[in-house]
Give the backbone structure.
Amino acid sequence: MIRPVVYGADYSAYVRIVRLVLEEKGIGYELVPVDIFAADGIPSWYFDHQPFGRMPAFEHDGFRLHETSAITRYVDEAFDGPALQPIEPRPRARMNQIIGMLDAYAYRAMVWDV
């Protein structure tokens, strides 16, 4: 199996989410460190992986994605292992609602203020 590649900093909450999903699925992966806050700025090559210069970015067998929710859903659906999302529409919608709320309203308090 071709190992996925995760691009980003190990301190990033969003990179950690992707790594946690890969671990839960039992998938080996490579982490390519990218520090978007480096003194020299974002490496120019990184924009080929993430056009907005944010973290994380992901690649699997030539398929590239960015945005944590897209990456995690892809990993859950594309790889063997335990299902990480509810199958039924209502519980899945509730899961997406909670993820959206945390991302939109709680991120700053949970990450920057702690």
